[in-house]
Amino acid sequence: MRSYGQFCPVAKAAELFCERWTALIIRDLTFGATRFSQLRRGVPLASPTLLSRRLKQLEAEGIIERRRSETGRSWTYHLTPAGEEFAPIVEALGVWGQKWTRRELAKHEADVTLLLWGLETHVKPEAFGARRCVVQLTFTDMQLARRNWWFVNEEGRAEMCFEEPGFDVDLYLTSTLRDMIYIYRGDLPLARALAEKRLETHGPAWARRALPRWIAPDAIALVKSQRADARAA
Q1: Which of 56, 55, 57, 60 has the alpha carbon at shortest distance from 33?
Q2: Cβ-Cβ contacts under 8 Å for 202 (sequence gap 6 or more)
Q3: CA atoms of 215 and 221, how far apart (whole Å)
């Protein structure tokens, strides 16, 4: 990692935390990612080689630790106590970003991979009760191969599927990628999206009633923009 060449504790901490991808890796570990494949989804622009190198650096610095998976055939990644103390800093960055950087999405920011990873880690599968509920999300502005995605909500967890999971779909959601990002980011309230048909739903009443709880915004998404020129959604 690059050095500022200073003994100042701010400089020493910044050498670790401000290295590219580090804050996002810590973000995803805080949100519950443990596997390399999960971390890859959170930083899709980082090559596997670069991500592996960064994880090794963070492990050497005592920020994360590797553990054998339950099968013993792979590794999982976890924050150490030192790494966990970065979590409030990541949250504070998120709050600041919501206040001062929100605007209309640039073309390169409409990232379907990051949105799907964010949804998988933030939706509330318990909103559907004890029953299994399959949600199909369709992006009308995406190419056919990347248009449909599925979330299987069962036993208190949500799993995103790249292919049809083999169960009947209970709730169909149709939107553009941009509008779904605006909903997830907190710029576009769900009720407004539904009223303006920027998000359309189809399914039994019990599933549609559960939708607001399933996709409820987190605390950071509820932070209001403070930019005078803010334009979003």
Answers
A1: 55
A2: 171, 172, 174
A3: 11
CB 111 within 8 A of CB 44: yes
Segment 65-82, tens digit of pLDDT = 999 988 888 899 999 999
- CA atoms of 34 and 28, how far apart (whole Å): 8
Q: Above 80 in pLDDT, residue 45? A: yes
Q: What does the angle CA 132 – CA 138 – CA 141 come to, to the nearest 5 degrees? A: 165
Report the pLDDT value the prediction gives residue 231, as an integer from 0 to 100.
Answer: 58
Runs of H (alpha helix) within 65-203: 81-84, 87-100, 112-122, 177-185, 190-195
Predicted TM-score (pTM) of this structure = 0.84
- Please tell me the distance from the alpha carbon of residue 17 to that of residue 26, in angstroms, as a whole number: 9
Give CA–CA dist 117/42, Å, rounded: 7
Q: Are 223 and 187 in contact (CB under 8 A)?
A: no
Q: Report pLDDT for 49.
A: 95
Q: State the helix-helix crossing angle for 87-100 and 22-30, rounded to 10 degrees.
A: 110
Three-state secondary structure string covering 46-84:
CCHHHHHHHHHHHHHCCCEEEEECCCCCCEEEEECHHHH
